[in-house]
Amino acid sequence: MAVVKAKKHLGQHFLADQNIARKIVGSLSPENTNILEVGPGMGVLTHLLFSDKRLNVVALDVDTDSVTYLKEKYPEFAQQIFDADFLKTDLSSFFPDNEFTVIGNFPYNISSQIFFKVLDNKSHIPEVVGMIQKEVAERMAAKPGSKTFGVLSVLIQAYYSVEYLFTVHEHVFKPPPKVKSAVVRLSRKDQEALGCDEVLFKRIVKTMFNQRRKMIRNSIRPILKEVGFSHPFLEKRPEQLSIDDFVEFTNVVEHALKE
Would you call 117 helix, strand, or coil by DSSP? Predict the structure, then answer.
């Protein structure tokens, strides 16, 4: 059986350490048994997932070489392995009317896009366990006041609790990446609705952090136009606000725009 060659344009770095693979799969919550794996590659996680009889596993890979390899290696699971792009696929079609956990050694070049796709499907996805670039993991888990607290931090933490589980070094991959990696776990919060206009919330967060060094009074102008109002948050910078603050401010802005 031919070995799958890692493709640079797909951001592939295949994990070669079985102990780390077991730690990643072991980070899944036992109550979530529907599993969607993103980018299985040569199947270092897939093997462990398929071996657990409790789990209902679907694996998606945009690399046809990986799909062919995995179907030959696991013929009994061939119907659960798909040549599909996670970012362009209707994820709910794999587990109709059921929730599912997302897991994977995510390609670095699309890791942020993967998490935004998760947010678009948050009603179906209670949990994510993924390995990503360490820098991205730190941004996702960053707290207000931190220099790394930004758009990704706010939008994900609005709906999920983020845990930075452990760091993974370069030498356990083939080929080794030029950066360190980290494994994170996202657990969906009980309250899915934010209590504000969520489209406006997202727009405000992105607009503020687009000029993160400016006071909110100045960075929010593209949304407010000529509308004026006073609020203590206007004298702060976006990284100083908590998730609840962003929700509160969204409601204030919505009210001001309607006035």
Answer: helix
The structure tokens listed for 99 are 């929730």
pLDDT at 10: 65
Omega before residue 176 within 30° of 0, cis: no
CATH assignment of 198-258? 1.10.8
Strands 181-188, 127-133: pairing kind: antiparallel
Contact 184, 132 (CB under 8 A): yes
Give the whole-angstrom CA distance, residue 247 versus residue 43.
41
The burial class, CB within 10 Å (0-12 / 13-18 / 19+), for 105 is buried
Q: What is the pLDDT of residue 6?
A: 59
Bridging pattern class, strands 101-105 and 173-174: unpaired
Below-70 pLDDT ranges, the chain: 1-2, 4-7, 9-12
For 231, the token pair is 């609020």
37 touches 104 (CB < 8 A): yes
Residue 17 has what DSSP assignment?
Answer: -
Homologous superfamily (CATH) of 8-188 is Vaccinia Virus protein VP39 (3.40.50.150)
Please give the sequence-ordered ranges of beta strands (E in DSSP) within the chain, or none if there are none.
14-15, 34-38, 56-61, 81-83, 101-105, 127-133, 160-168, 173-174, 181-188
Residue 193's pLDDT is: 85
Give the C-alpha separation, 128 to 122, whole Å: 10
Q: How many Cβ atoms are within 10 Å of 253's Cβ, its own excluded?
A: 23
Please give the structure tokens belonging to residue 235. Answer: 């004298």
Structural domain spans, the chain: 8-188, 198-258
